[in-house]
């Protein structure tokens, strides 16, 4: 069990705050429904996924992505829901009525299930995310109260989501499950990436800086293997290209000025030589 060490108990050199302070997983909320609220990685990683998810064969206005949004899946149990770390739905309006943001995603109203779900493993949800723990196991096998199905079962058997991807920030391992004959089958990955032909996009592990943090991130890439930039990155690339064009133009101008100076110098030299010849009585 997690236990803080008080200064009087410490005989070794002081530990860093990371080693001594409790995490949200050590001190869960008194409300069981809030025990898995996102940490910073669960905020930043879905954000990067959403910013780089640009299917080539779908207009932007009919692509909906969300993170940590309640996904309601059973019209007979309307309070049952799952909260994927990130998911994408294709073929539905990005906004309600063309201008309003969703407060949830209700399957029996939308009529379209997500095409892709990404779950980021955490200590409190790992077994359920990987289908190794049913809700009934977590709440006690003798409970007579009807319990909602596990996340795995909802994604696999109720919503039948074609692609279910799981990523661990602790091992930097990406695992991909696809539906085969109604059940999830893990795809063997020779590289830490997967190409999804239905959306003409790939998802892989990218090493770089996002939000000022340099680490391995999940990120989408295009058919040529290029990582899709965020709007901020595209703006920075455009600025660099403009600066490069301006620098080349300035260099060309400097070369032209230099050539003009050399031509002027040559002309002055020629006039000087003509003048010397005339002084010597030679008419050129």
From TrEMBL:
Q: Give any Pfam family that matches.
A: Uma2
Q: Does the keyword Nucleotide-binding apply?
A: no
Any keyword Hydrolase? Answer: yes
Q: Which domain of life is it from?
A: Bacteria
UniProt-annotated stretches for the region Disordered:
1-40, 248-267
Every Putative restriction endonuclease domain range: 25-201
Q: What is this protein called?
A: Uma2 family endonuclease
Source organism (scientific name): Pseudanabaena yagii GIHE-NHR1
